[in-house]
């Protein structure tokens, strides 16, 4: 997962018509979260599996030379502990291993997908890794393909990956591995003057679902004004969760293949004038936290210790707090619940969090699990 720079999105004009009387079967809801493998103080044994259906191991990378996965002894031990612990929990959850992440080099995946030979090496190694360490599925978090050519190659990867998964499952008489991808909040976008769009046809045919990263719309890359970094609505632009999720549906990805991303952290700014403290208020720099980021448990602690004023903003469906010149934009239980109701009304598959261990005593995770009503 990574910071999403301010972008201007082009309008999407593809419309999907569903025949009258057509009823789609409802697959099981997704209640997922990514587990940051580098946080040693939050082992898999600490995860409350009553709140989730799927947990993603974040992250692994293939060799940038061979495109195979070379797992060290310590990582192998961690992988086995991750799947073993979560499969033995009551209730057990499905486990997926995620490749990439916001901190990885996007050029690695660009090189890998550029020809069939390297794609096959990567695919075979990924499947072998998942089976060796007991994972139920595979997830690709490439942030982000930079042009139409890379998007087309990504589409080829997904198609070939699905074929390989089916073949492996048939030959081993095992359930097919799940295949998912973490994607930009919108199906198409323009960065640095280059328009690109995800390979919708390949995604619809090849993946089980996509995790739309509906956060980081605002952040430390723009310190001129405060912002709701995961706004459901934005009255001034199409950089919003509602726009992004609808764009995936309008482009042709089935609603039951779209999963909404939710942040368990906030972004912070320093106000120019403490008396001007709403969303969009003038700012002079980042606020408390590491590069202007506080995880949710830290937000709650900061608010309590500093007597901060907490405001729910219905216009954007977000929450913010301020005290003195410090300003934090984030999601709490209230804004999360409204977002989930929106996602359910849109007919989406479920939600995921970035990231496990950022919550405060499972506060938001519990509320989300209750709010996503089945049936």
TrEMBL record:
What InterPro entries does the record point to?
Chitinase_II/V-like_cat, Chitinase_insertion_sf, GH, Glyco_hydro18_cat, Glyco_hydro_18_chit_AS, Glycosyl_Hydrlase_18
CDD domains noted in UniProt? GH18_plant_chitinase_class_V
Residue ranges of every copy of the GH18 domain listed in the record: 29-375
Alphabetical GO CC annotations of the entry are:
extracellular region
Q: Cross-referenced SMART domains, in alphabetical order?
A: Glyco_18
Any Pfam family hit:
Glyco_hydro_18
Protein's name in the database:
GH18 domain-containing protein
Keywords per UniProt: Glycoprotein, Glycosidase, Hydrolase, Signal
Q: Which domain of life is it from?
A: Eukaryota
Q: Provide the GO biological process annotations.
A: carbohydrate metabolic process; chitin catabolic process
**How far does the signal peptide extend, from start to end residue?**
1-25
Per the record, the similarity remark reads: Belongs to the glycosyl hydrolase 18 family. Chitinase class V subfamily.
GO MF terms on file?
chitin binding; chitinase activity
């Amino acid at each position: 997962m990574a910071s999403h720079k301010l972008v201007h999105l082009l309008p999407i004009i593809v419309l999907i018509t569903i025949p009258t009387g057509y009823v789609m079967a409802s697959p099981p809801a997704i209640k997922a979260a990514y587990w940051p493998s580098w946080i040693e103080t939050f082992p898999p044994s600490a995860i409350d599996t009553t709140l989730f259906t799927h947990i993603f191991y974040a992250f692994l990378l293939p060799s940038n030379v061979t495109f195979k996965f070379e797992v060290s002894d310590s990582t192998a031990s961690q992988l086995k502990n991750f799947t073993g612990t979560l499969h033995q929990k009551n209730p057990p959850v499905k486990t997926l291993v995620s490749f990439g992440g916001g901190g990885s080099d996007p050029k690695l995946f660009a090189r890998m997908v550029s020809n069939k030979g390297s794609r096959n090496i990567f695919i075979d190694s990924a499947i072998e890794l998942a089976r060796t360490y007991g994972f139920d599925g595979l997830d690709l978090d490439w942030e982000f393909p930079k042009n139409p050519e890379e998007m087309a190659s990504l589409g080829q990867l997904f198609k070939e990956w699905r074929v390989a998964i089916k073949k492996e499952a048939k030959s081993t008489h095992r359930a097919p591995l799940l295949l998912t991808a973490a994607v930009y909040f919108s199906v198409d976008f323009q960065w640095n003057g280059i328009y690109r769009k995800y390979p919708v046809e390949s995604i619809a045919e090849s993946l089980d679902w996509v995790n739309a990263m509906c956060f980081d719309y605002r952040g430390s890359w723009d310190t001129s004004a405060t912002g709701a970094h995961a706004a459901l609505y934005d009255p001034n632009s199409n950089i919003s969760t509602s726009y992004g999720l609808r764009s995936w549906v309008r482009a042709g990805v089935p609603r039951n293949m779209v999963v909404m991303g939710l942040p368990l952290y906030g972004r912070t700014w320093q106000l120019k004038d403490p008396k001007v403290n709403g969303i969009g208020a003038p700012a002079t720099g980042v606020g408390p936290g590491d590069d202007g980021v506080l995880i949710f448990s830290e937000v709650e602690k900061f608010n309590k210790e500093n007597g901060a004023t907490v405001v729910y903003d219905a216009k954007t469906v977000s929450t913010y707090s301020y005290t003195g010149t410090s300003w934090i934009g984030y999601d709490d239980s209230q804004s999360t619940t409204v977002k989930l109701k929106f996602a359910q009304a849109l007919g989406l598959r479920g939600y995921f969090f970035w990231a496990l261990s950022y919550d405060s005593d499972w506060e938001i995770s519990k509320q989300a699990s209750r709010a996503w009503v089945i049936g």
